[in-house]
């Protein structure tokens, strides 16, 4: 009998966003996450003639963050109410880590939700903020 189970995923390798102003977004992700930019650009596969990407690496997790410039970008802010991405959620180890993030974002003058808690579907705490293109980024800690 054939195994109809889905193959395993080992983790998230990278996330990629199309941005309005690639230089401003590079600066923001470097500042907020201390992400380190690789010193080259990459073709936007399948759209090589209309765009390119830069890649930044968040040094502690190794997460790669791709920022894409595309000539078809009309300059609109991101809107999670449209089809596509709603938000990205990053895991952190504890509520204390969320408090440290809130202090860090305050020091950078980046507006955020403050740490919020909930019990459904499991006990958790979150902190929400947005990048320069209005993409919602969420930090999430499961309750101990």
Automatic annotation (TrEMBL):
GO terms for molecular function: metal ion binding; transferase activity. Keywords: Metal-binding, Transferase. The keyword Cell membrane does not apply. Residues 11-142 form the VOC domain. The keyword Metal-binding applies. Signal peptide: none annotated. Pfam families: Glyoxalase (PF00903). InterPro entries: Fosfomycin_Res_Enzymes (IPR051332), Glyas_Bleomycin-R_OHBP_Dase (IPR029068), Glyas_Fos-R_dOase_dom (IPR004360), VOC_core (IPR037523). This is Metallothiol transferase FosB.
